[in-house]
Amino acid sequence: MARAQFKLLLFLITLGILVGCIGTGWWIYQNIIAHDAAISKDIAADRSTGRPPPDPGARRFEAAVDLVKSGDVDGSREALYKLLQSFPRSPTCAEAKRIIGEMNMDALYRMDLSGGKRDYIVQPGDSLLAITGRTKTTLEALARINSLTSINLQPGEHLFVIPMDFDLAVDVSDKKLTLLRGGRFFKEYTAMGLKLPPGMKVPGELEISSKSAVFDNKSANPVTADFVRAEKRIIASRGGNTAGLMIRTPPTAKPVEDGQKSATDDSPTSNLGLFLAREDIEEIYPILRKGAKFSLVQ
């Protein structure tokens, strides 16, 4: 009798295990295998009809936009950064980069403590150059952020200062210039043209070696009105050598002597450089310090 009961118990245990395995297998099939198969079928159907495949980043982008509408700018920016990291191939990434860039630049140049700025109190004997060296910023940025119109400072005056820890990287294949801050994406620009000097190899590492702002054949001071109208150029080179890649606006037509037609500079180097729209170079010129990294990638 006991032996029969043991066999019955063993049978019931075996049956329970078998039923459990079947149930588990059915759950896996319904919730994983069949689900994945349905998604694959839908993607295949979309491709067969010419429709683009589903974009996994679209929902993340929409959520970030909703945060902007609700007033949570910082939360939206971080959500967009996560989108770039998680779904770098999403079609929404281009617009995400544009929005991030506008947010970052607005915070940088706004006259408040946003964007990493801090309050600096002018000390007796301070000069603008001394302050830029002490706070690792640039004279141009200091003048722009604080709307300065004079180099004269008064002790006790408050200035917004911010370290300019920016670098540049340009993708020569699609002429995209990326502004980086602390190694993190800050803003992206599209170059109007790019032609590297002979012998400059890609990939390559350069550094910002010099900057110039010239108006009416004279160097323009950042606190004067002439600075806004000045032609700005940035040189990126290896080892501080000024012979390198020039970042500037495209060459413009100028009248020839007879006054009947115009021509552009036809010197051998006139078509060499990285050419940006004027508003773009006006934006990045103040925040680049000498020694900033400039990477050529492909």
Can you offer a commentary on this structure?
The chain is an alpha+beta fold and 298 residues long. The chain folds into four domains: 12-47; 58-106, no CATH class; 114-161, Membrane-bound Lytic Murein Transglycosylase D, Chain A (Roll); 166-297, L,D-transpeptidase catalytic domain-like (Beta Barrel), CATH 2.40.440.10. It has helices spanning 2-48, 58-69, 73-86, 93-109, 128-135, 139-145, 226-229, 278-284, and strands at residues 118-121, 158-161, 166-171, 176-181, 184-190, 193-195, 204-215, 218-219, 231-237, 245-248, 254-255, 262-263, 273-275, 293-297. Strand 11 and strand 12 (262-263) form a beta hairpin. The longest helix is centred in the N-terminal third of the chain and has 47 residues, at 2-48. The protein starts with a helix and ends with a strand.
Give the SSE layout.
Layout: H1 2-48, H2 58-69, H3 73-86, H4 93-109, E1 118-121, H5 128-135, H6 139-145, E2 158-161, E3 166-171, E4 176-181, E5 184-190, E6 193-195, E7 204-215, E8 218-219, H7 226-229, E9 231-237, E10 245-248, E11 254-255, E12 262-263, E13 273-275, H8 278-284, E14 293-297
Parallel strand pairs: 3-14, 10-13
Antiparallel strand pairs: 1-2, 3-4, 4-5, 6-13, 7-8, 7-9, 7-14, 9-10, 11-12
Helix pairs in contact: 2-3, 3-4
